[in-house]
């Protein structure tokens, strides 16, 4: 696994929309809220690693987003480092990427307040993730949960990102970010922000739950058998795949009307990088048992080296802290320059 541990992240000059970098900038992030699963890997992190050499990449551990729902402070601190270790173990290379913890660059929180003052409440009320996370408790959920998309927009806009590679569930948040950037730019008649685009792949953008393939695979699903966690061992993976919901047809073919087997086949397609036709040929005349065994083998072969590297990185926390500090120092000048620009046009200071 190519992980560059030389800490060679250099501070960059302050950047504005008028002086974009030569390589297009990518920004994305994940919440450090516990077990990362295969959906996070195939929908996000793996895609980041595959295209990292083409772009100027910034990947964030969004701890300020994680406190929008109750979380134990010690657990949050630990999960933040674990997520950084996963980023590196999965193959993010410091030659191409800067990694940082969101709360270490305080411009995010400051920009978020200002941008909230330019966000119509109706836009936030329409966010489907807010509605599903708030559930029935709309009166008692933290206000931060409602304002979550503004902070996410600031993550992206402060760094003048062009592209935001995410899974399908973030589509509405990126659309919101674009709307907010356009609204602010046109309100002040200046291009304060680059208007970013999502990068959502066709296959893997929505990995589904193993026990109910009509729902997406999720960290918050109470049933642990609904997901493969990135740190699951071979035995656990074997059991979860054996139990995964399929159907009674016993045909190993890509048919979206049979969502269980379709989801498992999509995962296999991503892991083996074969076409659907090649996969159907491979399993012609074979049953679900053979297919599930092959899928398990692929999953273990993909995750075992990531897990080994993850444990090495977690055994040297000072080195990890250093990488994160250097990342924050490297990205801060652009965030500070954008924040200053926001304040100038608004008339603050
Ligand atoms: P989060 O932490 O919920 O998820 C991280 C990434 O994993 C993707 N993902 C999935 N992809 C495919 N199938 C699934 N079942 C699946 N589940 C999750 C998500 O789409 C995401 O790409 N709001 C963001 C974090 C964030 C952010 C940002 C992202 C904060 N600021 C700025 C991009 C840019 C979130 O909660 O992701």
Your description of this structure?
- There is one protein chain.
- The protein is mainly α.
- The protein folds into two domains: 17-205 and 316-346, HUPs (Rossmann fold, 3-Layer(aba) Sandwich), CATH 3.40.50; 224-309, Tyrosyl-Transfer RNA Synthetase, CATH 1.10.240.
- The chain contains 13 helices and five strands.
- It has helices spanning 38-51, 63-66, 73-89, 107-116, 121-125, 128-134, 143-158, 171-188, 234-243, 259-272, 276-282, 288-314, 317-346; strands at 25-30, 56-61, 97-101, 163-165, 197-199.
- The chain has a three-stranded parallel β-sheet with strand order 1-2-3. It has a two-stranded parallel ribbon with strand order 4-5.
- The longest helix has 30 residues, at 317-346.
- Mean pLDDT is 94; it is low at 1-15.
- It binds tryptophanyl-5'AMP.
- Tryptophanyl-5'AMP is lined by residues 27-31, 39-40, 43-44, 62, 65, 152, 155-156, 164, 166-167, 169-170, 173, 205-207, 216-217.
What's the gist of this structure?
The protein has 349 residues and is mainly alpha-helical. 51% of the residues lie in helices and 7% in strands.
